[in-house]
Amino acid sequence: YHPASTDLLLLKTKILIAQRAYKDALVITDTLLRKQPPVKEARILADRIKDYRSANRIGISYDYTHFSKQFDQGWHLASIGYSRQTSIGSVTARINYGNRFGESGWQFEADAYPHIAKKVYAYINLGYSPDLPIFPEFRSGFSLYVNLPHSFEADAGFRYLHFSDDTWIYTGSVGKYYKSWWFNLRAYITPSSSRISQSYSATARYYLGGADDYLSFSAGTGLSPDDRSQAVLLNSNYKLVTRRASAGYYFSYKKMNLFSFGLSWANVEYLPKTRDNQITASIGYHRRF
Q1: What crossing angle do the helices spanning 22-33 and 6-18 adopt, rounded to 10°?
Q2: Which of 108, 195, 233, 273 is most buried, most CB within 10 Å of its CB?
């Protein structure tokens, strides 16, 4: 009697998921995501369906950074990883190869996103590299995420990097879904004996349809420990003053193939009154199975 009812279609989707009829459930979520405005819960269900339907994922990515004058040679960063959806959440193992400062090195990482409660989950990261200074010797991270009413979400946690000394960075963010948009404001705070360094970023995503199809835009100041292509610059005695901006395009092909392209710019004061422009191009591919 009510074939267009959003509430009933969401309920039908949940029933189909419980029956493991994932293909039929995805047809409904795609319909709800094409509505104006799109239904936020449909995007969450679509993500859940894809995790249930294809528990495995492999991915590769490559970043190239060009420096206008700070370094004579560009930087290369390549990664290959495998993810598995488990009963407690997704787990990823990743190997990174870097060529920086005219040297090459390797880093080994593991990520996990365990579910803690219905609207609470965590992010856990551990990493090791025998190749200083291409990568930090150790890195770790933890954040606790909470889904809030009115399409808000928030998280708080820390990042830890060990080069020759320990670097502790505390982070928190607030996000909001609005129609086809997702907005996020994030801060990184790094205390030290002489001063407190701060980094801020604003990110916006515009979803073009499904959960894997969107445009991303970001702008901010300072260096982010979550930016694998630039985080090694945190190993500096001089507190870098940075302005940065980036854009990315993410899309899926036949549901199982995920592609990403990105371009970012950073203006870094790496020495007093000496600035460098850095351009980073990124490409990535993931395959669900």
Answers
A1: 160
A2: 233
